[in-house]
């Protein structure tokens, strides 16, 4: 099932399917935020932004507006 990265629930995993390359900072791409990589939501900040993910064994904080530009396929849909 395809969904955007910000739709994940804590502990849920998925694989990055598509990214909007124009909206994703280069630093995230360098840290492994690329199609095919496994992503897991670890935590959400108290005010709902940013999100804290484990992507390709890197712990990354991503703002909600950026997470909305990343489409994933959830693990249970594979």
Q: What's the arrangement of secondary structure elements?
A:
Blueprint: E1 2-4, E2 13-19, H1 26-30, E3 38-44, E4 51-55, E5 58-62, H2 64-67, E6 70-74
Descriptive notes:
- The protein has 78 residues and is mainly beta.
- The chain has one domain (2-77): SH3 type barrels (Roll), CATH 2.30.30.90.
- The protein is 12% helix and 41% strand.
- The protein contains two helices and six strands; from the N terminus they run ββαβββαβ.
- It has helices at 26-30, 64-67; strands spanning 2-4, 13-19, 38-44, 51-55, 58-62, 70-74.
- The chain has a six-stranded antiparallel sheet.
- The longest helix is centred in the middle third of the chain and has 5 residues, at 26-30.
- The N and C termini lie close together (8 Å).
- The model has no long low-confidence stretch (mean pLDDT 88).
- It comes from Flavobacterium jumunjinense.
- This is Ferrous iron transport protein A.
- Pfam families: FeoA.
- Residues 3-74 form the Ferrous iron transporter FeoA-like domain.
- InterPro entries: Fe-transptr_FeoA-like, FeoA, FeoA_core_dom, Transcriptional_repressor_C.
- Model regions low in confidence, pLDDT < 50 over at least 5 residues: none
For this structure, the CATH topology is SH3 type barrels
Number of strands: 6
CATH superfamily: Ferrous iron transport protein A (FeoA)
Task: Please summarize the sheet with the most strands.
Answer: 6 strands, antiparallel
> How many distinct folded domains?
1
* Global shape: globular
Order of adjacent strands in the largest pleated sheet: 1-6-2-3-4-5
Whole-angstrom Rg? 11 Å
Amount of helix: 10-25%
> Treating each run of at least 4 consecutive H or I residues as one helix, how many helices?
2
Which structural class should the secondary elements be placed in? mainly beta
For the record, the CATH class is: Mainly Beta
Mean pLDDT: 88
Distance between the termini: 8 Å
Q: How big a fraction of the residues is strand?
A: 35-45%
CATH architecture: Roll
Order of helices and strands: EEHEEEHE
Organism: Flavobacterium jumunjinense
Keywords: Iron
Domain Ferrous iron transporter FeoA-like: 3-74
Protein name: Ferrous iron transport protein A
């Amino acid at each position: 099932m395809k969904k955007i990265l910000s739709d994940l629930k804590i502990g849920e995993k998925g694989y990055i399917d598509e990214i909007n390359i124009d909206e994703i900072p280069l630093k995230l791409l360098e840290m492994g935020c690329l199609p095919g990589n496994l992503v897991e939501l670890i935590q959400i900040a108290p005010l709902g932004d940013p999100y804290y993910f484990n992507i390709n064994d890197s712990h990354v904080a991503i703002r909600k507006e950026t997470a909305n530009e990343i489409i994933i396929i959830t693990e249970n849909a594979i």
